[in-house]
Amino acid sequence: SATPSIIEKRRDIEPFDINAVQTLYSFGDSYTTQNLNLSTMAYACRNCTSAGGLNWVEYLADLHPMKYWNLAYNSAPISNAMVGQNSSAVADVTKQITSMFPQYFNSTNQQDPSTTLYTIWVGINDIDLTADWPDTKKLDKELMKQYRSLVEYLVTQHNARQFVLITVPPIDRSPMWQSKGSDAVEMIKKRVKGK
User: Fold this and answer.
1) Span 146-168, average pLDDT
2) 142, containing H or E segment
3) According to the UniProt entry, where is the signal peptide (predicted)?
4) Which of 46, 86, 96, 164 has the fewest CB atoms within 10 Å, counting from its CB?
5) Is the dihedral of CA 45, 48, 49, 53 positive or negative?
């Protein structure tokens, strides 16, 4: 019989403390965006979100006061090219992280890694945009590979150390998917779970 391995707690990593966070950088889609105007570096308004009111980023910053920069964009997938979306209309998460972030927050403005948090919430648009594709298993693996490379980019190029990575919620429960019937609901449920 196999004996479970015990992973020793790393002593060189401090436990995460949300109260120590002073700066937040967020990437993602409409669930995250606050419509940052990059020329003025100001948000359209506190309620200019897909929720029609405060979103989770604003709630987090209100609960734990911090300076935050939200580069998320409506309809963003991990990669426009990978899901066949017009790249000129939407700043995908790849562009947000590898182009927009270094352009507006270059290495001379790097924050202390122990007080900076990076968040990414993405995946819903990747699934919705490719739901009618005949086989998405290979695509999903490639999307996750790209997602991992984006996190590694932040770690290696921007010294990021603290992350919150939010997964796709059970979108099979949404009215849009419920209206498509039980086969569509089951397909989406399995895809979200990675099966």
Assistant:
1) 94
2) helix 137-158
3) none
4) 86
5) positive
Interacting residues of 192 by C-beta distance below 8 A, sequence separation 6+:
127, 168, 169, 170, 171, 172
pTM over 0.85: yes
Question: Pairing relation of β-strands 36-37 and 116-121?
Answer: unpaired
Could you tell me whether strands 42-43 and 36-37 are parallel, antiparallel, or unpaired per DSSP bridges?
antiparallel
Beta carbons within 8 Å of 92's beta carbon, 6+ residues apart: 73, 76, 77, 78, 79, 80, 85
Distance between terminal CA atoms of the chain? Answer: 27
Look up tokens 């007080």; give the residue: 115
The whole-number pLDDT of residue 40 equals: 85
> Cβ–Cβ contacts within 10 Å for residue 80, how many?
22
